[in-house]
Amino acid sequence: MATLEEIFPPFGLAIRCGPVELRVLRDEDIPGLVDVVALGVVDPQLPTPFPEAWHELPYDPENPDAFPATSLKWWWSQRAVFGRDQWRLVLVVRAEGEIVGVQDLSAERFPLTRSITTGSWLGLAHQRKGTGTLMRQAVVGFAFDHLGALECHSAYIDGNAASAAVSRKTGYQPNGRRRIAQAGQRGVDEIAVRVTPDTYIRPEHPIQIRGLEPFKRFMGIED
Ligand SMILES: CC(C)(COP(=O)(O)OP(=O)(O)OC[C@H]1O[C@@H](n2cnc3c(N)ncnc32)[C@H](O)[C@@H]1OP(=O)(O)O)[C@@H](O)C(=O)NCCC(=O)NCCS
What we know:
Layout: H1 4-7, E1 14-17, E2 20-24, H2 30-38, H3 69-79, E3 86-95, E4 98-108, H4 110-113, E5 115-122, H5 131-146, E6 151-157, H6 161-170, E7 173-182, E8 186-195, E9 207-210, H7 212-219
Parallel strand pairs: 5-6
Antiparallel strand pairs: 1-2, 1-9, 2-3, 3-4, 4-5, 6-8, 7-8
Helix pairs in contact: 5-6
Bound molecules: coenzyme A (COA).
Coenzyme A (COA) binds next to β5, α5 and α6.
């Protein structure tokens, strides 16, 4: 019988950088991830960093419109987007083996655009320890060195000092700003940033990849 990794190569992908490891979300990761969200993702003193305040929904597993079902819908919808024209990876981040957050990676028509977009969050207890910087430097290095990406994009809401710092420490440059309607209620400035191989700042640890070749074949990525 084939293994799950052989059936679906993204499950075989593992990106390691020092104490941090990123792997595509599996259902057995969900209890750990739900725990991390339930313990808090955003310092209540700081402005909401996401377009939607998904992390503030009440915990009620009996209600499909409450957390965690709302997050499950999102994670499973991301899982269903895979193909050579478009893919989205929800990468579960572990630090020293413990689930601490998520790093998203997505691309459209990657073999032609060689362009990737990222987004991320960590549980409050796991912030300000260098993990946010390391996981972003790791996926950008993976994109440039192993997938042949030519640029990576990200964006943060104006005032999100932590996200701005992670982008700066990974070598992203400002790439414009636009107004968005946050949670459908508030107009805020979103700042776009872009990093290229020329400006990329590498992590202090080597980036090690497992399951690369089956993943590239599956996504139609050639050298
Ligand atoms: C953004 C996030 C992933 C950063 O991860 P992190 O592990 O906390 O960041 P790091 O520890 O690697 O710190 C990176 C830099 O940000 C700075 N920083 C971290 N939190 C900060 C805060 N609340 N205010 C100001 N600076 C902060 C650190 O001082 C560090 O800069 P330095 O090395 O110059 O001192 C994390 O804070 C998070 O998940 N926040 C909530 C969700 C979020 O904002 N996601 C991003 C949406 S665009």
